[in-house]
Design goal:
This protein is an all-alpha fold. The chain is built from ten helices and no strands.
Amino acid sequence: MLVWNIVIGCTVASFVNAAVIRSQNKQNYIFSRSCCPDCGHVLSFIDMLPVAGYLIRSGHCHYCGSRISVRYPLTEMLGAIAAIMSRNMFEFVLYMILLAVALYDMDTMIIRNRYLIMLMVMSFVVTDFCFIGNHLLGIVIISIPMRIIAVITKGFGFGDVKLMAVCGFLLGWERAILSFVLGCMTGSVYAGYLLLCKKAGMKSEMPFGPFLALGIRISFRYGFRLIDLYELSFIRVYN
């Protein structure tokens, strides 16, 4: 079962990555043949093997020798991890949509409405409507402050606001706050790394969607545990 999960996770994540890249180039991401982005040669079965193809070819195109981006095997490994950690098919599909959000935002600084619609549909499927108030509050508790900040300072894009609104409904208000905090923490660490390495300046822009997607992913699976742990630690400190 573990091996099967790894194979499925790598394969689906590879398809998600290809779909994201081809959609940016206005290509058909279902029927188009995979090819080298540098020389345009159609890839063989071995070339397209998730992770293994990258290792077999030593990270280079077999036809023109150009270097293959490490993004491909890393994305496939993230898919394998998601498949292993997912408790059911719904959770795995959710993680793959969030992966698409992150990859597309990394490339274009845009969060596509198509992915947000998918997330909204998933939210309606999983939501317990006995707690609908909690989920409705989740829509606005982060997205409205983000929208105000975006208008005043341009610190967030409107896509980030919409992502938090949609996933706020999925998570409920407590986990929505946690996901935003986690996104800010991981984003700040990465921004600090870029500044220290002089790869970006204080006024440089960077996509925030990948960090929000990570925070949402963690909060969906471990949110209530992390909140309980925080509350327990808070009580111990002040008692």
